[in-house]
Specification:
heterodimer; A: 465 residues; mainly alpha; Formate dehydrogenase/DMSO reductase fold; 0% strand; globular; B: 396 residues
């Protein structure tokens, strides 16, 4: 349809280039390799020291937990599940943004994802590691934790295959494996770049091993692109399945407030919501410190804010749907639990959740606010606070007031609950800081692919002008 | 080239107004259905409701597709926008077609029986929501919202044809954001009202999402078939290319999985919970020959289309895609039929001729109005800033 020439007459409506400041291929490599190649800044040591200390605290407390048993936590009858499960769900949820960005946005041809995908995938892996701490330690008898896996044994004893807790092991395990693989495959061309730039022999040798002999030839790229597409296709259902299975932990039971059919998609939306919030918090800090504002641009931040607005609304939809159907069901217990959430002893937690998850993201209706860094920084943190409280509300309100009023009790966490939770932050940031220090935090090869120069017709066009 | 000559170029040829036949068929279908009303009123109302919901969900899918297109600023779907626009503006017509359901409420909805409510503790609790006046007020509200959304988006789109204003693209995008919110709420509660309350004790929080997933699949199938029909008549052949069909195929593939995910979530959680107020719905659909319909849905709504559409070659095979278009429309009707009918034919699956006449009756009007709307304007949004890119787009 060559007759249409309208487009050139109209101001094409685009949000600007994906990378600002008209960079060259070389300058992109230089900008992203700068931090890993330069010496370690003091600030990094300070942060790393803090992270290591927190991790040390967490591991020490976990050691004490093994010694003493789960009684040191705030759990008691009837709330037999406490912070451990809340933190598990929270961390797994945070892990969802990475795969969404690397797989689903890739399949939907959202090219803006290239600036943040590496970063988000790394975050995913570390978040899942933090999450995996909890199922292992919450069982009480850690020495039989291997029982979570269906290992053949001489007693002929198997885990209950109808239990979603077992499905969790498979779902999160698969998710972790595929995410790691996806992340690593994406890293290969960049590791080769680092190898070629390495100054010392040892560094070069190590990077040569991990870049799997990458030469950047045409054939290698073809295979690489195909592998990436296949991994994206495989990861896409995983984005949905993992948190769906996590939601089954609750929803297959008959506990009021847990047993409701919307749980799987509702959990997935919430996971993406909190994952994006975490990516936002970390990206805002990293782009500032490492001077990557021209690569992770306002456009990226704005898009992420839009996704948070969308997923925040989905979560709000689920809250209201649950509330309505609890009333509509005519089921006394279902109704009671929801009214209790809103005006009962944990109302403060419920309204914190509503405020952070439903009210706060509304600010992103305004374009001005979507492009305001302090606002989005605060909002992203509030959203993760809200998403923690969402899990708190689900776990604690439904459990602590069960069918027998005589056993009702108020749940309060102990020092050990808080300490182990903080400890997982230590684990997370220890890994994350190592990642920032040693690996390319933005996908160099992919960024080059979205530069205008990467268009095969780029030079022809410019020739005409 | 100016707008008017472009509009001329993209006008549907005069020889090609397929609406007339559809109108006649639709009219005949509705007349026969009216006969059906005198033969068996109860059957008529149930058949009519199923047919009405089937076509309404397609129209709602059209509204969703249009708004999603604007919100994401998608390029590839620009050339398909006129299809989804012509589908969504059928919603006001469907509002009129809703009217026959009102006298049928007594036959359709058990909760409208005063003596039943008086004897049923749970129905009494639901009375503030499930009562005739409020039900009707809500229906008016749903159609009001849909009318507003569809008309406004259509208006902006038409304006852009006459004046090449990129700001209108922005306007449509900005309008679609709150529009999506209203869409989600209205579709959910319409699904609760019209379908879920057929089993007044039964409830499922995911039900709105379930209906939505079927609605999106069926509108993709409808757009696919309409475009392929024009392709057969040598219209828009070089505009809607293989690449666009490939993308439609990907979405059909993706959302058949999404549908399965939602359907499985609903079924699995209810099966696992195993409490009577919830299992009632699935037990009813496992009664007698309904069991086979349930199995047909599992295989034909998910398993088989999943296997068929998984390869790239399949999605780029237009003959096959045509089959899949009809396939998804038919299975979506089976799904709706399976939701509505077991409340009438409790003993087993039983097809009535009124099922066909109502389906064809409303469908005829639907198709007629669709082509009427579609032919009114250029077949592509000629002043959309991304039109050229959309035509030239290729799947890497």
């Amino acid at each position: 349809m060559s007759t249409i020439t309208k487009e050139t007459d109209l101001k094409v409506h685009e949000d600007g280039e994906l990378v600002e400041g008209n960079p060259t291929f070389a300058s992109v490599t230089a900008d992203i390799s700068r931090a890993p190649e330069a010496g370690t800044p003091k600030l990094w040591f300070v942060a790393f020291g803090a992270a290591l200390s927190l991790m040390g605290l967490g591991l020490t407390l976990i050691g004490y937990l093994f010694w003493e048993g789960t009684g040191i936590w705030g759990i008691q009858n009837p709330a037999g599940w406490g912070w451990a499960i809340i933190n598990f769900v929270w961390w797994v949820g945070i892990g969802h943004a990475g795969t969404l960005i690397s797989a689903i946005l890739f399949l939907f041809r959202q090219r803006w994802r290239t600036a943040i995908n590496r970063f988000a995938e790394a975050m995913t892996i570390f978040a899942v590691i933090c999450a995996l701490v909890f199922p292992g330690i919450h069982v009480g008898r850690v020495w039989v934790a291997y029982f979570m896996f269906p290992l053949p044994n001489q007693m002929g004893m198997w885990p209950n295959f109808r239990s979603p807790l077992l499905w969790d092991v498979f779902a999160v395990g698969t998710y972790f494996t595929v995410s790691l693989l996806f992340w690593y495959v994406g890293l290969i061309p960049d590791l080769a770049t680092f190898r070629d730039r390495a100054k010392t022999k040892i560094k070069k040798a190590a990077l040569a091993v991990f870049s799997l002999g990458w030469r950047g030839g045409n054939r290698q790229w073809q295979h690489y692109e195909r592998a990436y597409l296949i991994l994206a296709g495989l990861s896409t259902p995983l984005v949905l399945s993992v948190h769906s299975v996590v939601s089954f932990d609750f929803a297959v039971s008959l506990i009021p407030g847990w047993h409701t059919t919307i749980f799987p998609p509702y959990f997935v939306a919430g996971a993406i919501f909190s994952g994006f919030a975490m990516v936002m918090t970390l990206a805002l800090i990293a782009r500032k410190i490492y001077g990557l504002e021209h690569i992770i641009t306002m456009r990226h931040l704005e898009n992420m804010n839009k996704i948070m607005l969308l997923t925040g609304m989905m979560v709000g939809y689920a809250y209201s749907c649950e509330f309505f159907v609890a009333w509509y069901s005519g089921n006394l217990y279902e109704k009671a639990i929801f009214i209790n959430r809103a005006i009962g002893p944990y109302a403060w937690a419920y309204w914190t959740m509503i405020f952070c998850n439903v009210v706060v993201p509304q600010i992103f209706w305004s374009r001005k606010m979507r492009r305001n860094i302090p606002v989005m920084f605060v909002a992203s943190i509030l959203i993760n606070v809200g998403m923690w409280f969402e899990r708190f509300v689900i776990v604690i309100t439904s459990l602590s007031q069960d069918f027998l009023p005589s056993s009702w009790d108020y749940f309060s966490p102990t020092f050990f609950d808080v300490g182990i939770y903080l400890g997982t932050f230590g684990i997370f940031f220890t890994f994350f800081l190592l990642f920032l220090r040693f690996l390319p935090m933005v996908a160099i090869a992919e960024i080059k692919g979205v530069l205008p120069q990467a268009d095969p017709h780029y030079y022809e066009h410019n020739g005409h002008h | 080239m100016n707008s008017s000559s472009l509009a001329e170029q993209f006008k549907l040829p005069e020889s090609l107004k397929p609406g007339k036949i559809a109108l006649i068929v639709g009219g005949a279908g509705l007349l026969l259905s009216a006969v059906g009303f005198f033969v068996d009123a109860k059957q008529f109302y149930h058949s009519y409701l199923a047919a009405f919901v089937f076509w309404t969900t397609i129209a709602l899918g059209g509204l969703f597709f249009t708004m999603l297109h604007h919100l994401t600023g998608a390029t590839w779907s620009v050339v398909l926008r006129r299809f989804s626009e012509a589908i969504m503006v059928i919603l006001p017509v469907l509002a009129i077609l809703f009217l026959p359901i009102i006298p049928g409420m007594h036959d359709l909805y058990h909760w409208t029986h005063e003596e039943a409510v008086a004897a049923d503790h749970i129905l009494q609790q639901k009375e503030p929501y499930l009562n005739i006046p409020f039900f009707l007020i809500r229906a008016v509200f749903y159609f009001g919202v849909w009318f507003l959304l569809a008309r406004t988006l259509k208006k902006y789109s038409t304006q852009q044809d006459n004046a090449p204003e990129p700001s209108l693209t922005d306007k449509m995008r900005r309008f679609s954001a709150p529009g999506m919110l209203l869409f989600a709420v209205t579709l959910t509660y319409a699904a609760f009202d019209w379908l879920m309350s057929l089993n007044p004790h039964w409830y499922s929080t995911i039900f709105g999402v379930y209906i939505f997933s079927g609605s999106l699949l069926s509108v993709l199938a409808f757009i696919l078939l309409a475009a392929l029909y024009l392709r057969g008549k040598d219209v828009l052949q070089s505009v809607i290319t293989l690449e666009h069909y490939h993308d439609l195929g990907k979405l059909l593939f993706g959302f058949t999985v999404f549908w399965a995910y939602i359907a499985f979530s609903q079924y699995m959680l209810i099966w696992y919970g195993n409490i009577p107020e919830e299992t009632e719905f699935f037990l009813q659909r496992w009664e007698g020959s309904w069991k086979y319909v349930s199995m047909v849905i599992v295989f034909f709504h998910f398993a088989l289309p999943f296997l068929i559409l998984v390869t790239r070659a399949a999605k780029r095979n237009l003959a096959l895609m045509k089959v899949m278009g009809f396939w998804f429309l038919i299975i979506h009707y089976v799904d709706i039929h399976w939701i509505v009918m077991p409340t009438l034919h409790t003993e087993g699956f039983s097809l009535s001729w009124i099922d066909f006449t109502t389906l064809i009756g409303i469908g005829g009007l639907f198709v007629w109005y669709f082509w009427k709307q579609f032919a009114q304007q250029a077949t592509v949004p000629i002043n959309d800033p991304k039109l050229q890119s959309s035509i030239q787009f290729t799947n890497a």
